[in-house]
Amino acid sequence: MTETASSRVDGAPRGVRMPRSERRAQLLAAATDVFVNNGYHASVMDDIAERAGVSKPVLYQHFPSKLELYLALLERHTDELVRRVREAIEETDDNWQRVRNAVGVYFDFVDSGDEAFRLVFESDLRNQPPAHAIVERAYTACVQAIAQAVAADAGLEADRAWLVAVGVVGISEDSARYWLTRRHELPKEEAVALTASLAWKGLAGFPLHSPVH
User: Is 115 helix (H, G, I), strand (E, B) or coil?
Assistant: First the structure.
């Protein structure tokens, strides 16, 4: 299915036809920019349509309301975070590298050019039930991925492994967000290594199967 743009989009001429999936991705990218800069409450659909270079009817064809657009955007970015955390854990059997990879995901997430992390970690709509449910679901999935690795590698019971995983996620998120305010003073790789070392030294107190690095 294709659509016709009502104005120029990324340098494309008027009347350009775009597949529905591409149009949706374009609208979400434009919405990210508007919501990040203005917050949910101060953003209006007119600004998002203008930013995307489409008419309001085209925008409403995909997202009937500002809330639906925002929630779709939130799901997109939280799903991406969860996917990357899971991949970070699954791509190696080395425990130290798993920790470092997981920490690195959070630093990369906050270091993205579109600053989408602000919608997940700092949204002015985060306390509203629909948005809160999406963020909480993603948080739980990230903790679960790490907890499963901790339980298997450290020999911890599920409840204890979950608590440790909550700590790793908390350290990663808080450290990454702090680093962003000091990024010109400390290279990202060094910040990731420092944070990972902090998490690892705590995990090293358990009977991990891999040698301590």
Answer: coil
